[in-house]
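If you are new to this repository, start here. Below is one unmodified record pulled from the training split, so you can see the exact layout before writing a loader.
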Amino acid sequence: MWNMSFTPPAIIEATELSRLPDTLRLPRASAWAAANKPGHVVDSFLEGPVFDAQGRIYVTDIPHGRILCLDGGGDWHVVAQTGGWPNGLARHTDGSLWIADYRLGILRCEPDSGRIDTVLGHRNSESFKGVNDLVFDKAGRLYFTDQGQTGLHDPSGRVYRYDCANGRLDLLVANAPSPNGIALDEQAGVLYVAVTRANQVWRAPLLGDGSLSKMGAFQTFFGSSGPDGLALAPRSGLLVAHASLGGAFLLDARGNITHFLRSPGGQTVTNIAVTPDASAVLMTESASGTLLQAQLPQP
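And here is the target side for that same chain:
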């Protein structure tokens, strides 16, 4: 059942915004491809789209450890190399890019210089399972998922909150089967987590002391993969990129699926970001190394 009106979601056709040029593709073997796409040579796998104040788009290229930028003129260039497997990106208020790097932890990148610094490489001397995505709250605290290779066979994925001011790291969730995308609705006091291998989006109220309460399944999907990146949409909506169904779903505040933003080609829509003017969304079709765009429905 899609929604309480018992109707299929309205289809919004996405279009191609830009494709990673061949000059920046790296058609060579990688340890990431050997582990995640065995038998395939992966020249790029784009995720983590984020806009800066000038409207430039930054994305990660996981298998080749790169942070890439698409500027306002439509040109691509390499910003930095982490030496790991960068996945999610979040923009700090100081203009830096914070990176969830599967192998290296939480990193910080100065986009102008490409300098990379480690913020959190471990927790209490224990390595992370493999961090995936991250989001800042208005107070500057960082929420991030630690996915690793967890799933229904091993529901031990984690969600953390890091207070950048005092260095405190709190474990909020320790039993998620593949926590992936993460979004924070501070107005409603709600945290959303895409739990890929359960094919669900989980929702939890945030209490006044910062802890979670009564986390539950907000919406359940299907498919060979599951929900990946999340983003808040205008009017209390939630955008859910699905990594095997060829698009992204728009949910209202009650979890009803109202719209489906359909990829024009390629099923691996992994991450999503709302444009600065909140009129449209940007999606990564990771397998083809393509950025897609789609208009959001008007009220």
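Two things worth knowing about this chain: The helical segments are 31-36. Residues 31-36 form the longest helix (6 residues).
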